[in-house]
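Our example pasted here:


***
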Amino acid sequence: MCYGKCARCIGHALVWLAILCIVANILLYFPNGETKYASDNHLSWLVWFFSGIVGGGLLIFLPAFVFIGLEQGDCCGCCGHENCGKRCVMFSSVLAALIGIAGSGYCVIVAALGLVEGPLCLDISNQWNYTFASTEGQYLLDTSTWSQCIEPRHVVEWNVSLFSILLALGGIEFILCLIQVINGVLGGICGYCCTHHQQYDC
């Protein structure tokens, strides 16, 4: 098994997942494409935690680029052993993966809380409230109650869709980073996978 190639594939996947997380988080600020709710501070407080931008986005880019660049590191031959440098690199990728786990975990937690609490909206009593906060997420199973939110229009669908996307993307990122922790440990113990040509160059 080529541990370096596996890490590189995980890195490329994480880049695209991070981009999607950032886009989904940005869309949360503009229900129905309107900017006035953000400027009037009529958005869920959990939107301002930047879970998709920071957690599922920026904190994922770091391990992603580390994984992609693993094979570029020319550190063979250290410690008196041809493949020792590559082993060290694989072990160090575990640290980057742990940062990714922290970021994606943050994204998942905030997205889950956002789904449970529901959006801030103008309700039928003409008050801005977290209408579904007391339902403990049960409103997700009863779409007939979503009409209690008058403004922004379709804000429940907007929040549920985007927080669900962030939850799913963050979960996938978490799993991929966890896989890289295992991959990095195995690559460090068993040795980085090099072709005969690479081993000769080292």
Notes: Residues 76-80, 194-202 have pLDDT under 50 and may be disordered. The radius of gyration is 22 Å.
